[in-house]
Design brief:
The structure holds two protein chains of two kinds. Chain A is built from 13 helices and 15 strands. Chain A is an alpha/beta fold. Chain A folds into three domains: about 10-65, no CATH class; about 80-90 and about 365-465, Aspartate Aminotransferase, domain 1 (Alpha-Beta Complex); about 90-355, Type I PLP-dependent aspartate aminotransferase-like (Major domain) (Aspartate Aminotransferase, domain 2), CATH 3.40.640. In chain A, the strands form four sheets. A seven-stranded mixed sheet of chain A has the order 2-8-7-6-5-3-4, sandwiched between helices. In chain A, strands 11-12-15-14 form a four-stranded antiparallel sheet. In chain A, helix 3 (about 90-100) runs antiparallel to helix 11 (about 345-380), helix 5 runs parallel beside helix 11 (about 345-380) and helix 11 (about 345-380) crosses helix 13. The longest helix of chain A has about 35 residues, at about 345-380. Chain B is α/β, with parallel strands linked by helices. Chain B has three domains: about 25-85, no CATH class; about 110-365, Type I PLP-dependent aspartate aminotransferase-like (Major domain) (Aspartate Aminotransferase, domain 2); about 370-500, Alpha-Beta Complex (Aspartate Aminotransferase, domain 1), CATH 3.90.1150. Helix content of chain B is about 35%, strand content about 10%. Chain B has helices at about 40-50, 70-85, 105-115, 130-145, 160-175, 195-200, 220-225, 250-260, 355-390, 415-420, 425-435, 465-480, 485-490, 515-520; strands at about 150, 185-190, 205-210, 230-235, 260-265, 285-290, 305-310, 325, 330-335, 395-400, 410-415, 450-455. In chain B, the strands form three sheets. In chain B, strands 1-7-6-5-4-2-3 form a seven-stranded mixed sheet, with helices on both faces. In chain B, helix 3 (about 105-115) packs antiparallel against helix 9 (about 355-390) and helix 9 (about 355-390) crosses helix 12 (about 465-480). Chain B is globular. Classes of the chains: A alpha/beta, B alpha/beta.
């Protein structure tokens, strides 16, 4: 059986002469003498059924490019999908920075050899803190669902109470992640939503009590609706001694009020809209944010980078704040949750995005999203049988489109749109059966009037 | 001209880039813009107004976001400078981050990974057949590498994969009515802290099986003492972070099975065993690999990442969904195999981090089965070469040298003798390494071994690289005895000098954002 791959470009010491020299140095005859402590019964004696290596880097490139050549993406297709991963414009500078090999291949060094990593994460934390109106932001979590799961767990630990209230309108996958994460210690209670998609205040009053650790709601929520009664929700939570927990899409916050303005104690959300490509969902990264109070800071499971002086006057240094609260500290499983590799490069990227957009850019992008989305609603409502945002709630960039009266299912409509080169909105008819045949559409600053008119024209034609 | 003498082995002339770059807020000049943003066109605005007026006052942002206002060129320069002050694996000889498998991340993979940048995770299956084929084939490759029966690529990191394994353990025992009885997860001191911390989140009590003082590995007797009908799972790395492979692992696994427990293999250290030893032959029920470590996807300052988790046949219903299936013509996303009541269903949104999976796919395809075996053999050869050289440095030693142990892909050394002799700690030497453009990692906390140094060369460095690395360590250890102050006060030629960390644990002093720094230190 042929083993080994001499002179492989990624393996310098696969050069046979060097390999021999090194084996001689350590007093072994052959590579087989390595793994001495793996007993014969554990040695793998078969062959892995994996294709033989490509003969060249060029062949690999051709193979992968051909593999993906038949796939579509949101440049080839006109895209109206959102639902947790959204198409926004990614300034070129974001890609330029996050593809720098120095950042791309750094990992867990110290503030000396990786100062740029520490400073860029500190700056990302600082800029997101400004955006969401909080004091403290973590080094990114895996995604918004995980950040929301941790937000609930933080409230549970801080209050010592067992229950978290979740809204009826919530991405079912996010709910599954939150509940799987928390269920060893947390009891999840669902609060109804009203017909216009907001939290049902009367039901909330019934659901909140002395057992409640926190009330989690989103703004805008999964179906795109802006919650107008956030202050009342927070007041109800606070009067019961519970925390107000708010999930946000941060790209809204150039124009929308920050969650602390309506009483939020812990904010979380998704960084992907901030300069990160969708990457088939791989661009997601979560964040949490709180006030700078010890009781909150001590509940973060994540690393928190803080600024500090060095022994040299005038020099900025950085370090880990309250490291021992994490599972990397001496307490291991006695620390808060667990910490590990998550999504730091996307935090860095979100920082580049916010620094590039600045205060005016964030306001403008918010405004353009709101205008384009409203225009889309207006155009779609001109189509017979189609009702966009029929419940009439306030929205930012996402809204429901009801096809029930057209006699076609969302699935049928989306198939027809696909054949016209359009990704229609996400079909939510299975997730929320009582809503009928509805799809969640996303319209952002990347959509032109022509794009929206094209959608409307194609829909009018295929539904006629 | 006189010939320039370059005979020195150690980079005494190194100096890292030091830009003295301000914090980004300090670069702000009112009115500067970094990018122009798409605006709604006039017809749209005429049709719907300004958009924002729809909002009631209490929902409008009151003041513009306090972000810096910076021209694009200056933003770019800022981050370019920060990148230059970051010694990623592309820049330095990355031997020093033991347990992290800092191997070379091929650039072609990086370019190819960007092919999927603008794909939406909810695109119709017909438009992602290439993507799904890639996922499907990766599943097949990982099955070959591990011997297990099905993989998911949903977890966004190794720790999340461990959390998934613990969640599947919980689901499995709930499904057979033993959840109440099985309350404990066993792990070892030298497995990753998440092997303890993540199962704790799922509600398990954590029990440690102690290592034998001579071999550094738990033996069957020690294992029997902690493993019982209360045990839900044994969660263990092999090799452990000491670089020691437990040849008796199957005895432990078999014993755990005999009391009804499951066995979960943390293969974060999988670079030690590709094509040599597999989860299947050792009897494990589950395992996970870090595609951002063993399979070359770059670490990205700590993510995005992927913990690929695999299971044996009987546990497939507990894997998160969807999986990718193939009917001979078409690839499709499938939820059918999942146990609706006890399956985990989801730990991360959508399909995990596709670019990371794709980079790992590219890497496997450039190596093939022989190359994967070569990766491991060279990584272990490199480590044993490094080990012999390191052990020849006076004051450096390693625990558990019982005359039989041969390290696999890494080793946790100790410099306790140097510390006894000079008072200089491994933390001091770590800082001094940075004066030579290098780095090492000490150990996870707490330090079970004193004054630790954990090194893992991987297959990526050349012999010359390893020699330079060891020569640098030897040079610094010599300094510890001859010129100790230069080590104690290091770094001197790095980006910054010693950080005064007094405020890091002080709620009144710490400053996690620029806003708080300005509030506390006016």
């Amino acid at each position: 059986m042929k083993k080994g791959f001499p002179n492989h470009p990624y393996i310098p010491n696969s050069v046979p002469e060097i390999e021999r020299e090194m084996l001689d140095f350590i007093g072994l005859e052959s590579l087989d003498d390595l793994h001495k402590n793996v007993p014969d019964a554990l040695l793998f004696k078969g062959e892995m059924d994996i294709p033989e290596a490509f003969g060249s880097e060029y062949e690999l490139r051709r193979h992968v490019e051909e593999l993906f050549s038949g796939d579509g993406d949101c440049k080839k297709y006109l895209n109206f999908l959102g639902a947790g991963c959204w198409q926004h414009y990614v300034p070129a500078i974001c890609d330029e920075i996050n593809s720098r090999g120095e950042f791309l291949t750094a990992y867990g060094g110290e503030a000396y050899n990786e100062l740029g990593r520490f400073q860029s994460q500190f700056e990302y934390q600082s800029m997101v803190a400004e955006l969401v109106g909080m004091d403290v932001v973590n080094v990114p979590a895996i995604d918004w669902p995980q950040a929301a799961a941790t937000t609930c767990a933080m409230a549970h630990r801080k209050t010592g109470r067992p229950q978290i209230v979740l809204p009826a309108i919530l991405d079912p996958e996010k709910r599954a992640i939150i509940e799987n994460f928390g269920r060893a210690t947390i009891e999840f209670v669902t609060v109804d939503c009203t017909e216009d998609g907001q939290i049902d205040i009367e039901d909330l009053k019934k659901k909140v009590g002395p057992q409640t650790a926190g009330v989690y709601f989103e703004n805008p929520n999964y179906l795109g609706v802006i919650e107008t009664r956030g202050a009342e929700i927070s007041r109800i939570a606070h009067e019961a001694g519970a925390e107000s927990l708010v999930g946000v899409d941060p790209i809204t916050l150039g124009v929308l009020a920050t969650p602390p303005e309506y009483g939020a104690d812990i904010v979380c959300g998704e960084l992907q809209p901030l300069g990160i490509h969708m990457n088939y969902g791989g661009g997601l990264a979560g964040f949490m944010a709180t006030r700078d109070e010890e009781a909150y800071v001590n509940e973060y499971p994540s690393r928190l980078f803080g600024i500090a002086p060095t022994v040299e006057p005038g020099e900025y240094g950085f370090g880990d704040v309250a490291y021992d609260r994490t599972s990397f500290g001496d307490l291991r499983e006695g620390g808060k949750e667990y910490v590990g590799t998550q999504a730091a490069l996307w935090g860095l990227t979100a920082g580049v995005y916010l620094a590039t957009m600045g205060p005016v850019g964030m306001e403008e992008v918010g405004q353009t999203c709101m205008q384009n989305a409203r225009y889309a609603v207006k155009k779609l409502n001109e189509i017979k049988g189609v009702r966009a945002n029929s419940a009439g709630g306030l929205f930012f960039k996402e809204f429901l489109v009801d096809f029930t009266a057209t006699g076609k299912t969302v699935s049928e409509v989306n198939d027809l749109l696909l054949s016209e080169g359009i990704f229609g909105g996400k079909d939510v008819s299975a997730e929320f059966p009582h809503l009928g045949q509805q799809a969640l559409y996303c319209v952002t600053e990347i959509h032109t009037q022509r794009d929206i008119d094209r959608l409307a024209n194609v829909l009018a034609r295929i539904l006629a | 001209m006189k010939r320039i003498d370059r005979s020195k082995k150690v980079r005494t002339g190194f100096h890292q880039a030091k830009w003295d770059e301000p914090i980004i807020f300090e670069l702000s000049t009112p009115g500067e813009r970094g990018v122009s943003v798409p605006k709604a066109n006039a017809a749209v605005a005429a049709a719907v107004g300004d958009g924002i007026s729809d909002l009631p006052d209490h929902l409008k942002r009151k003041k513009r976001v306090n972000l810096p206002e910076i021209s694009q060129n200056r933003v770019l320069r800022h981050y370019m400078r920060l990148s230059q002050m970051t010694l990623g694996a592309d820049v330095n000889i990355e031997i020093g981050q033991g347990t992290c498998t800092m191997k070379y991340s091929p650039k072609v993979n990086e370019q190819l990974a960007r092919l999927v940048a603008d794909m939406h995770p909810l695109q119709d299956e017909d438009t992602v057949q290439g993507m799904l084929q890639m996922y499907y084939e990766m599943d097949l490759y990982m099955r070959e590498i591990s011997g297990l029966d099905k993989f998911t690529f949903q977890p966004g990191g190794g720790s999340q994969a461990i959390f998934l394994m613990a969640s599947m353990v919980r689901g499995y025992f709930e499904s057979i009515g033993e959840a109440e009885q099985r309350t404990e997860v066993i792990t070892t001191l030298y497995s990753h802290p998440s092997d303890a911390a993540a199962p704790a989140v799922t509600g398990y009590d954590i029990v440690y099986v102690q290592p034998d003082p001579d071999t550094g590995l738990p033996d069957l007797e020690a294992f029997k003492a902690v493993c019982s009908e209360k045990t839900a799972a044994f969660m263990v790395a092999n090799p452990e972070d000491t670089g020691l492979f437990n040849g008796h692992i199957k005895e432990l696994v078999d014993y755990a099975h005999s009391v009804g427990a499951l066995c979960c293999y943390d293969q974060a250290n999988g670079n030690a065993v590709l094509g040599v030893a597999r989860a299947k032959e050792a009897g494990f029920d589950m395992c996970h690999f870090n595609l951002h470590k063993t399979f070359s996807s770059p670490h990205g300052c700590s993510g995005p990442a992927c913990g690929a988790a695999g299971v044996v046949e009987k546990l497939i219903p507990f894997l998160p969904v969807p999986s990718v299936e193939f009917d001979g013509k078409k690839y499709r996303l499938d939820c059918d195999a999942a146990d609706e009541e006890y399956g985990v269903s989801k730990v991360r949104a959508f399909m995990g981090v596709a670019p990371v999976v794709l980079r790992a796919y590219c890497w496997i395809r450039m190596l093939g089965p022989n190359g994967l075996w070569q990766v491991t053999k060279t990584a272990v050869l490199n480590n044993n070469y490094l080990f012999k050289r390191m052990m020849s440095i006076p004051g450096i030693s390693a625990y558990y040298e019982d005359g039989n142990n041969q390290r696999v892909e890494q080793c946790r050394y100790t410099m306790e003798q140097v510390t006894k002799d000079t008072g200089i700690t491994s933390g001091d030497v770590q800082r001094r390494m940075m004066d030579f453009g290098m780095h090492f990692w000490t150990s996870h906390h707490p330090y079970y071994l004193p004054e630790p140094i954990t090194l893992e060369p991987t297959e990526s460095p050349s012999k010359k690289d390893i020699d330079e690395y060891v020569d640098t360590v030897a040079h610094i250890i010599q300094e510890c005895y001859q010129t100790p102050d230069i080590v104690k006060t290091a770094p001197h030629r790095s980006t910054i000098h010693q950080v005064d960390e007094r405020w890091m644990d002080d709620p009144d002093g710490w400053a996690i954002t620029w806003k708080i720094y300005n509030r506390k230190y006016q």
